[in-house]
Design a protein that fits this description.
Structural class: alpha+beta
Number of strands: 15
Number of helices: 17
Helix content: 40-55%
Strand order of the largest sheet: 2-1-5-4-3
Largest sheet: 5 strands, antiparallel
Radius of gyration: 54 Å
Length: 545
Amino acid sequence: MKVSFQIKLFISLVAFFSVLFTLLGGYYYVDVGRQLYQEMSARAKIQAEEIALIPTLRNEVEQKDIKSIHDFMQKIAAHSDASFIVIGDNKGQHLFHSVFADRVGTTLVGGDNEEVLLGKSTTTIRKGGLGISLRSKAPIFNDAGQVVGIVSVGYLTSYLDTITVNKVVNILIAAVLLLIALFIFSWFFTRSIKKQIFSLEPREIGLLVRQQKAMMESIYEGVIAIDDDLRIEVINQAARKLLGLSQPARELRGQLISQVIDPVPFFAQQTMLAKDTHDEICRFNDLTVIASRVRIMLENSLQGWVITFRDRNEIDTLSAQLSQVKRYVDNLRIMRHEQLNRMTTLSGLLHMGRYEEAIGYIQAQSEHAQELLDFISSRFSSPTLCGLLLGKTARAREKGVELNFDPACRMETVFQPLHEAELISIIGNLLDNAIEATQRSSLPHAPVEVLIKLNEQELIIEVADQGVGITPEIRERIFERGITTKTRGDHGIGLYLIESYVTQAGGSIEVADNIPRGAIFSLFIPATGAARRSVQELEDTDYAT
């Protein structure tokens, strides 16, 4: 049976303080006993020396007037807290005993009178007639300075032990009360601790910490957790990479967020307290990001915020790739729509009995479609590329634009420097741009000329249109992200992707004006370049390292 953390902590606290109280009690008992013996020794010595200085007693002892000594000392003994007071002569015989009057005339016991008879005061622990006692003895001098007697004031050790025990008992009672209070405090303290750690065991907390660390490092997005003072608590590897931070996470922990990211409205105190936000476009240092901010609440108390962000360029790239997929779907839809129109026309001719016209229509459509299909399938080995070109041809025709393929088109093998998805993206974006530019020009629309040729040295892709062309203001920046001549749809992504793929494959792009109008895009990609990887592979590798 496993014992919970609360019970373990409670037992540990109680056991620790119990042992501590026991040790302190033992030390206190010894110390109190030692101090009591010192105090009582001093008290006995003072009493003995003061009694020895009384003139009346000195004369009575010198004369050995036992009755007078008895009467006088009875008064003194009644006001003293000593266990006994004894008066002896210079021969060691009892002259007075405060407890046993019949001891008068007998010899003092204990064997500690020699030094006193020589004129010295002594303090000893000896066994006397009443038992073991702490006693102090002082000599009694006459006017001539001779020792004529002895004063002995003593406290029985049993009496001293009783005083010590009484003091210790009082301390023990206080200790027991304190221990009970400790039990109550320990129980509520452990309950509070358990509540704060959500009833988790230390092993579970350790596991959660390790899991959190692994999860933070596995997240592709940048993640930063800050406290309510805007100081960094947690920052993952992706965040440090996106922000260009070289310091390890432990050095960044505790720093103000403004020391890591240049101050922006996103981190303004009032803005953060007002509401959470999602997918907000910000600029962190020199990077444009899409960021989200969520508050951390604990029992209706603000503990901080979690900020997640990702490079906006990556989002835009993904958006462009998804748009390309959408174009594929649109192409298929257009081809299906054209096919339905042809089938409807053919059905109408058959219903009207125009069989010769129906046969002629079928032959005309078949010859045109078959001619295009035969040309594309015979010149290009990639089924995906063939599907793209057929779809783009149908889409262009629907928009009133014709695609003319150069007879020199040929690509009978796989082009290794480019992945098929990248090649499709390049050709698809070039054709889309040319079709839209032609569609925006004045009627009649001139056809778009297309050349795709792979030889032993390089892959040549050339698309020429007689559309609206490229203005001189943006010609030098046409491949930058966000630069575009379009009036609708995705802006400034297609040519950016084209330039990225071509450059990584070691190729080049030439842009020229067409005659009498429009533009010509010519791409030259070497067929025997160095081995390369796609953008996604490079990003994945960088992130993994």
